[in-house]
Amino acid sequence: MREAHAEDARTEARRVINNLLGEQRPTAATLIADARATLGDERASQCLELALGASLTRRSAELSSIAALVVGVRELGEGWWENERGGKLPAPVEVLRTSTAIDPWTDLTLLEMLAAWIADDAADALWGPAVAQVDLNSWQAEDRIELPDTARPGQRLVVHFDAGGRLDALVTRRPDDDLGSNLDFSSLRYSKPAEAQWSWGVAAGLGPHRLPGEDPDPYARPVPDDAVRILREWALRHGATPEQLGESWSDVGDVVAAIERVDWMWRSGEWFGWWRGASALVDDSGYLPHRLEELAAG
Which ranges constitute the DSSP H helices of the chain? Predict the structure, then answer.
């Protein structure tokens, strides 16, 4: 059942990214070509440099952010890069050039921050500025926002819940004659850049995503036999098939491809420990011995 859900997600992601970028099975090469055509060589090269600087287990996320920028610039135009925010925020091109962290996105990488920024701007352009923000970890619908003074019964107000994500709050009159609101969860929607970011990552997967200018190839780095044995044997004992794991793991590329095939996020919670070990192996982390000990202890 979990494998079916994973494949359903990939099928939907391929449909969305095909609609947005014309690629049902996106690759790093086609994305970079799109970025150069849409963003220009200089900005595309700056984005590529940032992706090259990320760990291999983060590379897909960084490329997904580039996909959001490509779709967002197509939606909003090249002027988006130069648009300052009323003296409060620098223009996105300045942020890209200086690698400046901007609130409220300081917990994101630079590319993720720019992707969130353009996703929100595209949402504002489509549906107008949001009047409030809600956390959808709670699905309580009633009176989740503070109403503006201009609110009227029957009015729909745009509410922010995620980068590029919006839904409506319907203003209603309560029995005590006060105004309240009900979140309309059926109105939940995302801007196209936000859709591109999600769909590229799911459709393209973890990789390997080889990028131009890499010498030596980071995916060709050999992996230690002991770590390989521990991770493969654990995965087989916990439900992964030999086909999913692949015939053997001789290098990092083999491990990345296997992580993608086993769909660990759709399995039981104990697989998170396996992911921590496998990702430490891929990223050549000094934590690898500890992660393998944790896996054995679990």
Answer: 2-21, 28-39, 41-53, 59-76, 92-98, 110-127, 192-204, 225-237, 242-245, 252-262, 271-282, 288-297
Structural contact between residues 109 and 54, judged by C-beta atoms closer than 8 angstroms: yes
Q: How many CA atoms lie within 13 A of 292 on its CB side?
A: 16
Whether omega before 104 lies within 30 degrees of 0, making that bond cis, reads: yes
Which residue type does 181 have?
Answer: S
DSSP string over 46-69 = HHHHHHHHS-TTTHHHHHHHHHHH
How many alpha carbons lie under 13 Å from residue 209 in its C-beta half-sphere? 30
Tokens of 128: 């107008």
Whether the model clears a pTM of 0.90, i.e. scores above it, the answer is yes
Q: How many CB atoms lie within 10 A of CB 258?
A: 22
Tell me the C-alpha distance between 113 and 89, whole Å.
Answer: 13
- 216 preceded by cis ω (within 30°)? yes
Taking the chain (298 residues) in runs of 10, the rounded mean pLDDT of each run is 70 95 92 97 96 96 98 97 81 90 86 96 97 92 92 96 96 92 96 98 96 94 96 96 96 97 93 97 95 88
Residue at token pair 């697989």: 271
The token duo for 127 is 């549906």
Burial of 143 (0-12, 13-18, 19+ CB in 10 A): middle
- Do 145 and 131 touch, CB atoms closer than 8 A? yes
Q: Distance (Å, rounded) from C-alpha 226 to C-alpha 221? A: 15
At 1 the pLDDT is 40
Helix (H) or strand (E) holding 186: strand 179-190
